[in-house]
Amino acid sequence: MFCSSANAFFLFGLLILYIYERVSVDSRATLLLMIGFFMKSSGNTTALYLSKDNYWSEILGWLPELCWFGGLMFLGFSALEQRESQSFSINH
Q1: Mean pLDDT of 31-51
Q2: Residue ranges of the domains in the chain?
């Protein structure tokens, strides 16, 4: 559960950036970043709740790992989205 508060900080910062700076920042990359940090935060929350009860952690122990993996994938896709939009604006 590394840096749960940092994930929430980045998520709310990106949400404010997405709402108020739609013109200067690529909104698709920001949206993918928000989804990624939200998934990582939900994985941390799920891991915290599952650590309290041994029965549910055996059944749903895969859920936090899936959220963490999905969050990291969305963070990577946001970098690709930003790169594609920059190469498109340079070429055209």
Answers
A1: 86
A2: 28-91
| Integer CA distances (angstroms), 44 to 14, 17, 76, 80, in order | 19, 23, 19, 25
Please state, in angstroms and rounded to a whole number, the distance separating the CA atoms of residues 66 and 59.
14
Beta strands in 1-92 (DSSP E): none
- Tell me which residue of 79, 86, 81, 75 sits closest to 10, measured CA to CA: 75
Report the chain's C-alpha Rg in angstroms.
Answer: 16
Examine the pLDDT at 1 and tell me if it is beyond 70. no
Whole-number mean pLDDT of the chain? 77
How far is residue 6's CA from residue 61's CA, in Å, rounded to a whole number? 23
Is the Cβ–Cβ distance between 1 and 46 less than 8 Å? no
